[in-house]
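Q: Sequence in, structure out?
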Amino acid sequence: MADVVLEQVSKIFPDGTVALENVDLTVLDGEFVVLVGPSGCGKSTLLRIVAGLDTATTGSVSIGGRVVDDLSPKDRDIAMVFQNYALYSHMTVAENLGFSLKLRHVPKETARSEVDNVAHMLALESLVDRKPRALSGGQRQRVAMGRAMVRHPKVFLMDEPLSNLDAKLRVAMRGELIRLHREWGTTTLYVTHDQIEAMTLGHRIAVLNAGRLQQVGTPKELYQTPCNLFVAGFIGSPAMNLVSGKLDAGADGALMLSVGGQRWPVPDSQLRRRPTLAAFVGREVVAGLRPYAISVDTGSSDDGACITVTAAVVEDLGSEKNVLFVPPFEVPDAVGGGTDTELIGMWTANVKANAEVRTGGKVTLRLDMDRAYFFDPGNGLAIPIADDASVVAAA
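A: Exactly. Output:
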């Protein structure tokens, strides 16, 4: 077994800065878990504590059922891949790959066999005699991964290993990582700020904010059932659109959401899914809509929630369009640490490629309130879907 277990791990720096606070996290044997969160949230610090490069102030770390708090990095049977590759410039690819084996006094024939095997897996066979300066960024990153792999560690720790690559190479390397993990099955803890990496690589994702673990779940769970406003605003690109409003009952008893001077009907299906939403009638709530839940109104129906806005920016992506606009109501302060559009009070609609909308033009948008999320503004927690046990909320 090579599971990684963090129990009540905290890290407080000498100046009093709290980098991590009571983090409980289990990475199962053979699992690929991704740590995400805004800059400074503690994800790299957590990785360094698991690696033994930093020491927790309180709490403990176990690897493969053994507490490793007092073990040096070399005795933890882990391998770390860094953002900056950290290759030895005076060594060839083959020498870089085999360096850790040389330090461990592995017999030359065995070491050569291991290096050849890894070079073959990573398509580095034709490059083994080159030095790092003669390699592309993607090739250097493959060498850095190969140097970690050749040791057959119990755990891989990866700290934003693809961040220095261009977009096309990142896509290729993501596929490579998925393939390698499928073949090797090594327990992996991976840090990234890139949501696409997190959503495509992770069996599960752990979201951190200000040193506290917010939610752990599969990519689908985090996207569809965020446990609080932070996760809702952070997971998803473009980010979830948020607005404060008041729930009340209309003349016919139907549930309505009042936002500024507008009133939007809330479908009965929302109450069936979220029975506790009824307790918020007469109270403030925060509503959230993913960009895909906002479409260009075709005029085929006069019911539902619609707003007329000016398209500030239209991003034509070929298969779809993102329409950025300032809504006719106040947008809450950014809670997800995410996009610039949140910071300047904009919403985003993700509409069909053939939608008639242009930058600077007026457009009427329909809001699908059946797909809306609702949050308690007091504590930021999601108003849950009934019998939904998939959410692991922060304590």
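The first helix runs from residue 43 to 51.
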